[in-house]
Amino acid sequence: MKATNLYFIFCGVLTVWLVYAQYTGQILWGGAGSVRRYASGYQHK
Amino acid sequence: MVGESQVKVFNCSACGAPITLRGLGQTSTVACGACASIIDISDENYRILYQYFNLVQEGFIPIGTRGTIRDTQVQVIGYMLRCDASGEYQWEEYLLFNPYKGFSWLMNYQGHWTLIVTLPDMTAPISESSVQYDGRSYKLFLTGKARVKYVLGEFYWQVKLGDQVSVADYISPPFILSREATSDETVWSLGEYLAPAEIAEAFQIKGPLPQRVGVGAAQPSPCQHYAQEIKLIGAFFALLLILVQLIFSGAAQSKIVLERTYQYTPLHGAPARTEVSDVFELPARSSNLEFAVSAPVINGWLSLDADLINSEGQELQGAELEVAYYSGHDSDGNWSEGAQYSRAVLSEVPAGLYRLSFQTTADPQLAALPYRLVITRDVPNWGYFALTFLLILVVPIALWIREASFESRRWQESDP
Amino acid sequence: MALLQDEWSALQLQTSGKYRGVTFTLVGRVRLSWESGNWNEWFCYFDDAQHGWLSEAQGFYQISVPCAAGQLPALNEVTTGLSISIAAHSYTVKDIKKVKCTYSEGELPFKAVLGRSSVSVDLASTGNNFACIDYSEDGVNVYSGEYCKFEEFRFSYLRELDGWRKPS
Predict the structure, then answer these.
(1) At residue A37, does pLDDT exceed 80?
(2) What is the DSSP string of C36-101?
(3) Side-chain-facing half-sphere of B253: CA atoms under 13 Å
(4) Interface check B313 vs A, CB under 8 A
(5) N or C of chain B: less Cβ packing under 10 Å?
(6) How many Cβ pairs closer than 8 A exist between chain B and C?
(7) CA of B357 to nearest chain A CA: how many angstroms apart?
(8) Digit-coded pLDDT (tens) for C58-78
């Protein structure tokens, strides 16, 4: 059934995504504090 | 017309109109199409069994219609309207004939079609609420009575208006087992739900079929055939995700790269000082980085605003942590709010040498106090796992809700 | 007894079929009528020199062979629901009908068949097994057999019926 094939692929993609995120140390939500990311860092003095 | 050479025609004993018999001698009564009187055709003189003068009404599929259902050629030779004891619920039953296969029935109730065959015998185990037949479990759906309200065409027994039977229906969608009993005999039959499209195809019906009302007793749920597969796939990947997460959590190094206690002194209005930590190294591949600050703050707050500086002097990521803790005593007893620590986790920090540049501010009322900063590399993290896990479960859950709603609509019609 | 012209069946004399691997041929027929209808009983010869009956009623086909009578209740003792043991199997009475033979053709095992009256008692057992006891003036005959679907017999030399395709 086509629907089940799509779902299978969807689940596979999610699994790969999790593996990649964990491997590179990505965080979904930083925690109680606020985290920030600068697109291009500015030079520190 | 092809196939009509072995039919027999005679004149109705009541009104004289010609009656065509198609049952090849296997039927025993016929209802006249002109005056609806019921004639006994096993009697030489075609005696009238029941005479009444009523408007003749044809069923949705006219008598004489030929079709092919499930690879079997059939012809509609009889039509019957039956109703329950109250007369409120009414349904059509078409008697189908094939000279090799014998008789079968097509029932139409509120647009739901069921193909029914009589079983020669029923020896399956029967309990009050279910029947085990041919490897399936059938649940009791309704009990009641069925009364003949109107007949047209031929039948293989002596049907009379008002004939009543006790009925019990057991379902295992798309199948339905029915028991019809009189004081003399009990007859079981097995039915299979057919989609309207199959009926239209079988009898080459061009126009629209009657609209279906509600959910049929034996109607299979729309996602029945793939619901099982989806659930299995979902369960498999859910477990796989858990496994992946456990492996990564287990392998997380949680390496402390910096641990230092600093001293905060009240600013008294002066701007916050910028401090710089020692250099620390983040080895190997990119990973997460946790900042944790703890301080013995009581009824106040301490805030640390930090930036990571890499070996090229760039500030790419930072975090702000606030430690706030309040406690007191009121009529209900002791209370406390907040915590004496705060942590934040930075995402995907590449390997390399870093320093931390930070500014510490605090509630002006607080006196000097020490605070400890701990930076840990590669901590276990459950965020992405929670997200992917939920996303995987969305489909099976949505399916389950849809099926549950379908089934509840089905069982609304039940009347055991 | 008048021949009823309007009576057709998919089976005819010399139709052959297979039951449990043994081929049989229909060599005779009687039509039995009762209060509310009628059906055909075909007399058959099996290839292994046995004989038996193929009952054809409203699309239901039953094949049976004679079996030993054993201990049987008298006709006036038979009621529906009664348990009777035939050839070491237990059967339950399902149906009791007064029947009369209204037509016959071909080879048949007894004379003076037309007009013969009897009481036919149908019994059922587990699965598709059934038995039939025939009480008449010339004695009691017992048959035991099985319900089968039309396709299971793999009939050949069926009657040609206009406009109806024979099942393969």
Answers:
(1) no
(2) TEEEEEEEEEETTS-EEEEEEETTEEEEEEEE---S---GGG--TT-EEEETTEEEEEEEEEEEEE
(3) 17
(4) yes
(5) N
(6) 82
(7) 9
(8) 778 999 999 887 788 888 888
ipTM of the complex: 0.86
Domain residue extents for chain B: 8-220, 226-249+384-412, 253-379
Dump pLDDT digits (tens) for B107-122.
999 999 999 999 887 7
Q: Which two tokens stand for residue A30?
A: 């930083």
In a domain, C106, yes or no: yes
- Nearest Cα to B180, choosing from B191, B192, B188? B188
How far B304 CA sits from the closest chain A CA (Å)? 10
- Model confidence over C9-38: pLDDT tens digits? 788 899 999 998 899 999 999 988 888 778
pLDDT above 60: residue C4? no
Peptide bond between residue B174 and the one before it cis (omega within 30 degrees of 0): yes
pLDDT single digits (tens) B20-41: 888 777 788 888 877 778 888 8
Domain range enclosing C58: 19-153
Contact B42 C127 (CB under 8 A): no
Confirm or reject contact between A19 and chain B (CB < 8 A).
yes
CATH of B253-379 given 3.10.580.10, 3.30.565.10, 2.60.120.380, 3.90.580.10: 2.60.120.380
Distance CA B124, CA B105 (A): 22
List pLDDT tens digits, range B173-185.
999 999 998 877 7
Chains A and B touch (3+ CB pairs under 8 A): yes
